[in-house]
Structures are given as structure tokens and as C-alpha cells.
Amino acid sequence: MGETYPMAMVTAPGVIEFRERSLPALGPQEVLIRVRAASICGSDLHIFKGKHPVAMPPVAVGHELAGEVRQTGEAVSKVSAGDRVAVEPVVVCGECESCLRGEYHLCASISFQYRQGQGAFATYFVAHEDWVHPLPGGLSFEEGALVEPLSVALHALSRIEFRVGQTSAVFGDGPIGLLLLRLIGVMGGGATFVVGARESRLEKARRLGATEAIDHRAGDVVGRILQRTSERGVDAAFEAVGAPEALVQSLQVVRKGGKVVVVGLFEAQEVSIPANLFVQREITLTGAQGYCWDFQTALRLLEQRELNLRTFITHVLPLDSLQEAFELALDPEAGALKVVIKMDG
User: Fold this and answer.
1) What is the DSSP letter of 300?
2) Which is deepest, 74, 78, 136, 263, by most CB within 10 Å?
3) Mean pLDDT per 10-residue interval, the chain, length 345 residues
4) Are 136 and 147 in contact (CB under 8 A)?
5) Which is the CATH superfamily of the domain at 160-287?
6) Which of 273, 295, 242, 277 shows the shortest CA–CA distance to 64?
């Protein structure tokens, strides 16, 4: 095509620069998307700090996006020019055992677009049509950018087949933690405890229906949750912050036979945990990797108006304020939850 456009990269810890990228010729099943909105993810912040476990600067950033289809390859049949879409930013082989079973989140060579050099804080984004999903009518591009984190939360819930009436504890008051809280409410969950560290987010948790929102710095988080559950513990706990202390506490607050899901990204790769709990209480500990057919569920929920993603958006900034946006997202005094970059044109 010959056209170039700016794309954001973290070139060193704390430094965002825009580099010119050339528009590629589209493959038969590829879609060119004009990015309209992209939101900052926790993994973007890990990259910005230079502490992402597998993506060190220089690296592209941004993978939560929504936009408008501008052009399609000659064999594309699932979307058309002008369609409003969200993008599932995975890169999988389609040929390994997991992919052939439909479990593409376990692909032997799974990656994500930003790790392959294409970030969403840019004018354009190219994706295979299989990963391009039409947005429901009435959903804004800003909300569409949050379909990706909503899918992450849905996948975490699916890992333990969460049921109506079950009690839970969510460790982490960031976007994934609060999306989990809201989904638990939609699914008819019982008492739900949220543990975090930012008062603005804990207050948000209360407004979203948390039975109790606990500042982890207040001490004895485990004792407090056990007391509120008559020493039984909760049915399920979700580690959604990537903190060793939170992982240990999540194991300590579940009941006998309870389940713990780890969805947070850990900067520290080695964590000491009380191993005997697994035998003494038959606890199940499982991880949640991204999403697998969860975008479809997320979009159905949004189409049915089961939840409002706009309530999670606290700041909307232009692309040329991306450095400020990242700094704002990391500032505990800023009251930021989900920071969205809105593109012009």
C-alpha cells in the first residue's frame, strides 16, 4: 500500500515512543481495521515498568481495541468494510494438538499481536478475520475496547464452573478483579469479598455489589474473610493482581474442597506457598490463560445488556497523550481504573 502510520512502543522502562509502521498488503483472509479506541491493560503496564516476564522493551504495546473495518482481503466473508468490530489479539498455530481440539488458548506456540510487533495504540491494526468480532449495536468503541478484559474475566470463571450462590473472594481491585466481581453478580453468586489497595477502586467494588471491600494494608485479610464466613471459607478465590501475598491468602480463605484461580500476571516468578494446604483441605489451584471462545460469550452478554462496561472507564485521552495515560494508570492517587485512548478520524 505504501502508506505509513504511527504505532506506540515502549522503547525503555517508562518511555513511550511512536515509530512509523508501513501498512502491509492484506492476505486473503486478513482485515484492515481503523483503530477507534484502545485501552491500557495490566500487561501493558508491566511492559512500561520493564517488568513483564516475557516482553521486555523495546516492544509494541496495546491489544485491547475496537475499530472500524476499512478493507478486507479477497477471501474474507465474516466482516465487511464499515463494520464496527473488536479484535481478539491472539496468534496461534492452528495445527498443534490443543488447537485441533479447539483449545487454542493452550496452543503450543501461543503469542499475542503486541509480542509479534503489532500494537493497538496506532492508527491501524491488521488481523485474520477469525479474530475479528462485530460489536453489538449501541456499544461504543470505548466499551468495545473492553471486550478483551471482559473475556479474560469470563475465562477465569469458566475454569472452575462457578455456580449460582457460591461465595467468593477476589484478590485484586483492578479492571479484571472488578469485572470478575460484576460477572459473579450477574451469575447470581453469593457473598463476594474484594481485596485491594486503592480506596477509589474499593469504593467502586462496593458500588458494584461487593459484600465487603477490604484494604489489604489493614491487616489480617484471611481472618476477616473467615470470620465473615463462619470460619468455613469461600467456595472460590481469584488471584487477579499477580502478588505473592495475594496468592497465599487466596489459598488460605477457600473452604475445604475449594478452588483457586490464578489470572494475575506475576512479575516475581518464584512464590512460596503453604503446600500442605493442598493435602489437608483438598484445594484445587488452577490458572487462566487469556480466553478461548470467550469473546463470543462476552459479546452476547453485552448485546443482552447484562452489564455496563462504561462504568469501568474512568479516563479517556487522545493518542498523543499516551505517555501521560500510562503514568496516570500507574498513579495510585489518580483514581484510574480503565484508561482508554480514543483515536480521531
Assistant:
1) H
2) 263
3) 88 96 95 98 94 90 98 97 98 97 97 96 98 96 98 96 95 97 96 96 97 93 97 98 95 97 89 92 96 97 93 97 97 95 84
4) no
5) NAD(P)-binding Rossmann-like Domain (3.40.50.720)
6) 295
8 Å CB contact between 34 and 67: yes
Cβ neighbours around 12 below 10 Å, total: 13
pLDDT of residue 56: 87
Q: What is the CATH number assigned to the segment(s) 4-148+291-342? A: 3.90.180.10
Contacts 24+ apart (CB under 8 A), 228-233: 228/191, 228/193, 229/167, 229/191, 229/255, 233/258
**Cα 236 vs. chain centroid, distance in angstroms?**
19
Residue type, 251: L
pLDDT at 269: 78
Residue 55 grid coordinates: 516482553
Q: What pLDDT is recorded for position 2?
A: 67
* The three cell numbers locating residue 160: 472452575
